[in-house]
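As agreed, record copied across for absentees:
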Amino acid sequence: MTTFMKYLFQTNDNFSYWIPRIILGLVILPHGAQKLLGWFGGFGFTNTMTYFTQTAGLPWIIAFLVIMGESFGALGLIFGFLTRLSAFGMICIMLGAIIMVHSPNGFFMNWFGKQAGE
C-alpha cells in the first residue's frame, strides 16, 4: 500500500477526535440530505442540480460533487470512514459557500436588518 493510502486509512484511538468528527457530521448531514433526498424541507437532487447549474452558474460536475460531498462526506465523518478525505471535502464545500454566497453580505450576520444575508 502506498504511503498516501496508509495516511488516508490511518486510525487514531484518541477519544478527543471522535467528538468533533461526530458533531460535524451530524451538523452537515441534514444539509446534504436536503440536497440529495429532499428531506428537512429540501428540494431534492434534481431541483438542487437545476439551481446550482442554472441559477448559481456552477458547472454540473461541481454541483454534483457538492451534493455528494455533503451527503456522503457527512456519513464518512460520522462512521469514521476516510475522515481526512471527508473533512477535506467539507472544507472545500464550506469555502465555496463562504466565497460565493456569504461574502457579498460581509463576515457578520445581521439578524435584525433587511440585508440579503438574513
About this structure: Residues 15-37 form the longest helix (23 residues). DSSP finds five helices and no strands in the chain. The mean pLDDT is 86. Residues 20-105 form one domain.
